[in-house]
Amino acid sequence: MTTAPTFGFMAFALEPFPELQIGDDLAGTITDVLSRTGTALQDGDVVVAASKVVSIAEKRHVDLASVTPSPEAAELSARTGKPAEVIQLVLDESVSHFVAGDRGPIIARHRLGYELTSAGVDRNGPNSAWLLPSDPDASARCLRDAITNATGATVAVVIADSDGRADRRGATVISIGAAGIAPLRVTEHAETDGRTKRQEETLTDLIAAAAGIILGQRGRGAPVAVLRGVSYQATDHGVRSMLHHSPAGPDQAR
């Protein structure tokens, strides 16, 4: 099905947003912020949450003292300058990897099928790290259902993660989970020879990137943003449905 075009949209942060603690209710915090700020969600809004706050709510925290680096992790640590314990988590979370440039970044294919810098492992100071949500599409569905039940607005949810690229410096933002929104935007148009050309764009990535201007690197700006006015098809296919590689399964993730 062809997705209707979007000719304009607005984006805004939910702020002030409190700093979450491990195990806090993210959906409840979002609805509390909406209430305190007098912000009303509308049908069709897309709520974009930084993956880090989802990981915090889902207790995806690892104490680096509990990690024993392998010889491969020690070798990569010497090459890249990253702590061997963090690199071991990258190896544990991924099925393949390569080092882009002389000293990184490490680009890894996560167990769930995503290709991400450091397999999405986010160092948290000198002693700990955050892993990705164990099933980001399921996380997005739970968050969407809770927000819709609390507000009465039919919304979509995208979980966004910052990501580096092998061919350039700096970080961008991509989607790793989605609910209520088709991850691909499909367009069709007639060619001069009479054939119909079908094109697919990663709509949830475009939405994550737009929200990333507000979210900041790894959610260190505002951790939740809302996009309003974006046209999309409402499905629960999730980001997983557009991946080239079959996921290993969330039950196999740490």
Mean pLDDT: 90
Low-confidence region ranges = 249-254
Count helical runs. Answer: 6
Q: How is the biggest beta sheet arranged?
A: 5 strands, mixed
Number of DSSP E strands: 13
What's the SSE pattern?
EHEHEHHEEEEEHEEEEHE
What is the second-level CATH architecture of the largest domain?
2-Layer Sandwich
Overall, the morphology is globular
Query: In CATH terms, what is the fold-level topology of the largest domain?
Result: 60s Ribosomal Protein L30, Chain: A
Description:
- It is a single chain.
- The chain is an alpha+beta fold and 254 residues long.
- The chain has two domains: 10-51 and 134-162 and 174-198 and 211-238, 60s Ribosomal Protein L30, Chain: A (2-Layer Sandwich), CATH 3.30.1330.100; 62-129, CofE-like fold (Alpha-Beta Complex).
- 27% of the residues lie in helices and 29% in strands.
- The strands form four sheets. Strands 1-13-2-9-10 form a five-stranded mixed beta sheet. The protein has a three-stranded antiparallel beta sheet with strand order 3-8-7. It has a three-stranded antiparallel beta sheet with strand order 4-5-6.
Task: Sum this structure up briefly.
The protein is α+β, with helices and mostly antiparallel strands and 254 residues long. It contains six helices and 13 strands.
